Amino acid sequence: MSGIATKTKKYAILFHRWLGVAFCILFALWFVSGIVMMYWTFPEITQREALERAPALDAAAVKLSAAEAFEKIQPADTPTRASLETLNGRPIYRFYWGRDQLGVWADTGEPFEAVTESLARSVAARFTGQAASSVRFEGRITEADQWTVQSNYRSHMPLLKFSWPDGEEVYVSSVTGEAVQHSTRGSRIGAYFGAIPHWLYFLPLRENTKLWNDVVVWSSGIGTIMSLLGIAIGLWLYSPSKRYRFPSGARSVPYTGQKRWHTILGLFFGLTVCTWAFSGMMSMEPFDLSWGRRSPRVAGSLQDNLPELGAFAARHPRDVIASLAGSFEVKRLELGSFAGEPLYIATEAEHHTSIIPMAGTAREAFDTGAIEQSLLNATRSQSIAEKRLVTEFEAYYVDRHGQRPLPVLYYRLNDEAGSAFYVDPKTARVVARYGAGSRLNRWLYHGLHSLDFPILYRYRPLWDIVVLALMLGGTALCVTSLVIAWRRLKRKAVQLSH
What we know:
Layout: H1 2-37, H2 47-53, H3 66-71, E1 81-87, E2 90-97, E3 100-105, H4 117-128, E4 136-141, E5 159-163, E6 169-173, E7 179-183, H5 185-193, H6 195-198, H7 203-206, H8 209-237, E8 244-246, E9 249-251, H9 257-282, H10 317-324, E10 332-338, E11 341-349, E12 352-357, H11 368-379, E13 384-390, E14 408-413, E15 420-424, E16 429-434, H12 436-450, H13 454-458, H14 462-497
């Protein structure tokens, strides 16, 4: 029996050793880039940034109602969404059919057509606040580059790219005329050291979505096995009685030098390496965690379908914007309907909205009873098992940066999956949802990978200290792996040369 155990230990050590040689660079890269990603991520235009940089709508410039503007394009179907925004200093209606959209200038009634270089240049300059005279046109981007490799940019192709001498860059959509990507020299450097190596967002690999997905899943999966083996070997070899004899004295670990440090660091930080590799794999959702108990599908918003645009005739958008002047800067005016009532939702900033009905005064939130009924209708459920107002972040609704809306309404349905929804009462939008499987995935991915526990976030910089300590420990472990791997490969090369 002891002979089998000895052989098992020997092969386990060999397997772990050569997996370490193969993956030590990748793991070191993941840990170092993970430290960078604690504070710098991939450059993008967030909803918050887009609204902060957007100009307020000018009521006097809005000449047409939504119905009048819609008549200028005369499509066959009623749009699923409609909004009034500002583009290049002019008000524009945008009518949506899923991902497709058409635009009409609200000041002249002219359909929005091709995005010219001149228009895009002006949009980019307005977005950055830089002079249009100093901008350089980099050309029309017809294929993904390093900063537009995600799939959400494909519908905006070709993109018109502009740059400034200080390194600031903006991509403008040829479809909508909006700035859809923005970066600075600093944010790109941060991405090169953080998000790109951490997510393996190298352009030739990321362009092939399936290959990229397989590489991430398999490498993190193999890394998990490698880490588990390392932990098992470390515990197997560790001797509390210090039975290993060396000229310098008795020790608990049968190695000296880098191998000794690797074993000691592995005993302390091996579990961290293992859980981060495993949770990184779970970020790709490689497994079906529904177990047959699927939560009902619910759209991102509980609002009704957009009614015929004639239903908004009682209140012209120009008057709505003017009525809020002085206390509220309207940067986007959405047309919607809730509980059978047509209404406008004015947005000044992220999570700062106002609801304007066809009659009566503006209000900040929708009726909670109507939200509850809309959720039941959307999920085809009979009853709600639990409901409450969430005023601070909790285990299943948390945000390190504090940018999610609060307060929100929490509803748990009386169904087999225990489906739960967090709803923003200001917009009737579902801002988070969970079923049995997604609850587990929340802990297996975010819980293990980001340590996004409310208590750590609540007492910053406690989260920073804990995560940074673990990351530095993991980095040190990976550095010893690099040294050991280099020495082993060098020794093998010398042996093969003789």
